[in-house]
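Marked as duplicate of an earlier ticket. Keeping the data here for the record.
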Amino acid sequence: MTPTQALARFLARSRWEDLPDPVRHEAKRALLNVVGCILAGRSEPTVARVRAALPDDDAVVDAAAATAHDYDDTHLPTVIHATPPVGAAVLSLARTRKVSGRALLHALVLGMETSCRMGNAVMPGHYEHGWHITSTCGVFGATAAAAKILDLNEAQLASALGIAATQAAGLVEVLGTMSRVLNAGFAARNGIVSAQLAQGGVEGPAEPIAGRRGFVNVFGGTVDLARLTERLGEHWEMAEVAYKPYPAGVVLHALIDAVLEHRSELATAESLTVRLHPLAIERTDRPEPRNAIEARLSAQHAVAVALIHGRAGLAEFNDESALNPRVQAMRRRVKLVPDAALDKMEAVVSKFEARRSRPMDDARLEAKFRELAGARAPELIKTIAGLDRLKAVPALAEG
């Protein structure tokens, strides 16, 4: 059986009852997080422009909104933002048809699993080649989730994955620009389209994933196909997805933790030496960010706001904060030094070291959701907690 066939068979045969209780609970956490990010992100100017240009394409808008604040989630082994393409796809479909809570949560799990396993198969070479993995692998996850909601059979699912493969796209070059939100948006939309085309009888190639001119050989760089299908249904990649505690690039989270933890000792230093992995510096060395988009990927800004304010939430990474003279002055005190011995998620600030950002438990995740969702938070927390008992998913991310 080829990798595509094995994946399609697993997706087609998977049932909600097969999911372990911890995975079901994680599905609700993932949905809560992405709905909060969508609600907050819809007010972002870039997302407003996307919405005005594409008023009828809510999958693009929702996925763009989910990534707008860089506050979503990260599959730690691959750095995929797992929920925006998948969450936007299932929420879009639930607006136009009756979808039970269990069906939506199940589709979300399978979509995230597909995205992350595709990433496992091609990392790290795929990202190093310049492909934005959230989009290129996210389209497979969005397709899997949409196909599950549309109840595609095994053959249709294989075709849907093939149609997704030829739509995979997204460049790392767009990160740090307004158009970066479109990568997740197009992955969500293309995932829905792939499933709908397969449902309508459009056939895909026999082996779109592992074929000679298939996805992993054309887009890869590192190819480990065993990681795509090994222990399907036994090991769940959702366990490796971390929800962001700060609205900034994930490689900055341990850095922010270190600064907040040792703020009193660091505040009086005339200069601050920050050691990061070279790739983290390549992505975040922005000493003078001009706006929120650049600030969210600026190590210097992350250090400055954490030191000055003792927190690192939405207000600390907005346009006003990026142009704040006090923050600008503090940023100039930060010196970045590459250290290849560190993991991409690790940081050292002066003598203080942080290995990985602390995981978000349910209480922290709900607190984050309240910041994102505002007045609707109590109602939505209750609804999502009981979603698996609802016969039809209500409006969750409208705003």
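See parent ticket for discussion. Residues 101-122 form the longest helix (22 residues).
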